[in-house]
């Protein structure tokens, strides 16, 4: 697994990429379904909070949507995470080896 796939789910309900300092958190870009990286804050803002549900989906309360892996345009083997309506799709299932 590449380093770009090393994320942690925290007790503050953040998805944190912490292999560098300062740490970055997955953030929903305002007015879109796009996920971007922003510096983590001491108290996680609502656009950086996700609930890891029992079925493995990551639910974003502010948008009422789930993170889904979608194929990039013009690529058969690359995916991009986007917010989509929650379904039972395997493309919305995520797991973390450890929780912080």
Automatic annotation (TrEMBL):
Organism: Leptonychotes weddellii (Weddell seal)
Signal sequence, start to end: none
InterPro entries: Ricin_B-like_lectins (IPR035992), Ricin_B_lectin (IPR000772)
PROSITE patterns xref list: RICIN_B_LECTIN
Matching SUPFAM superfamilies: Ricin B-like lectins
A Pfam short name: Ricin_B_lectin
Domain Ricin B lectin: 3-94
Protein name according to UniProt: Polypeptide N-acetylgalactosaminyltransferase 12-like isoform X2
